[in-house]
Amino acid sequence: MIRDGLAGSAGPHVFVDSLDAMVVDEHDLAHLSKSLRMRDGDPLTASDGKGAWRHGRFDSSGIIEPEGTVQRVEAREEQLTVAFSLVKGNKPELVIQKLTEIGIDRIVVLAAERSIVKWDHTKVERNHERWKRIIREAAMQSHRVRLPELTAVVPALEWLAQPGVAGAHFGAPEIGVASRSVAIGPEGGWAPSEVGAIVESVSLGDTVLRAETAAIAAGVLLCAAARGARFDGR
Amino acid sequence: MIRDGLAGSAGPHVFVDSLDAMVVDEHDLAHLSKSLRMRDGDPLTASDGKGAWRHGRFDSSGIIEPEGTVQRVEAREEQLTVAFSLVKGNKPELVIQKLTEIGIDRIVVLAAERSIVKWDHTKVERNHERWKRIIREAAMQSHRVRLPELTAVVPALEWLAQPGVAGAHFGAPEIGVASRSVAIGPEGGWAPSEVGAIVESVSLGDTVLRAETAAIAAGVLLCAAARGARFDGR
Question: What does pTM read for this prediction?
Fold first, then answer.
């Protein structure tokens, strides 16, 4: 089992560019000193977002005093990926935040045929930056040492054709112990061309889930499967 | 396996008081005719929220024309229950909506020692009504034939002492195939007295989850366990 989360470690968790000279950026410093009311000398953990981390002591200057050596958490052999479809008016932020907390390695935002949303390049870029910020904040909150990768926005038809990607589909077999990558359609479901592109299908349970709920459920089940859960016990 | 969800059935799903004389209330009628743009004769399913349901045809008068006989979905032998702690500023609505979609049978809102929120009787009642409305809407959306029970607000100390209730705790064994009831502490964790009251502990994974995410993850894993998933495969 690989633990990408420093739960139980003392104090809050921050991301820094370098673990040799640990400098907290302005935004995070305000968070630590104001919201969390940290005092000089309070313990925390810092990570480079790439699997390495280190204990340290808070200092109001923003320069973290290191404690002990740099430690590394190995990456999963196979990334856990959840792809979900952008829909007008939905809240991709919620899904991105939750998938980060849950422990997913790669988050993919899809433009499905029934996604409705048609974004130009500028809008994609602006949202990409915002989503990366959400990932960073959620990863701090959940003490992750590896920031999930964000891939946005990819045509669903292209994504579904990739090997190993399972399309979520009601009534299909449940997520299996070998499942690593699930794609969730938009509220209106996959279009016929997309259904045609799906090689493998998985089900997420017995109820009809909103697209955002399906994405979160897929994340929970994929992580459980990677921890060794078996869903084939019916 | 018990399916409390009419996925794949034709048309939207509504709740009615009686399946003999199926009358859609004003609010739902507006939703069906305006948002979903249903026309006279369009198919739908109606349920009494207690396990019985029936096919029917929409009519703009609000009186559904029945089709076929009343069908019943048996209740689970043991209810699946998720209890979560109220915290100031959090969004119990999101948790209640998601647990309903996912298929949980009973939703319990706890007042934990670190919940901070102290609600008077009027506020509890007002929220109770609002939460029941959220449950009803989510159950329509997810085509459930059984409305989850709502219990709110119960002192955590009292709830945790009940047999069969497992307190979520990082590092504990994973939700097991026999798990039916999980309680989630507030963001600040259980207070020592509450920890003392916990008989059984379960873990929800390897990352640090926000309280709301933990409640949703518990719902997903409990439903998977009830479908026969095994989480002890490490």
Answer: 0.91
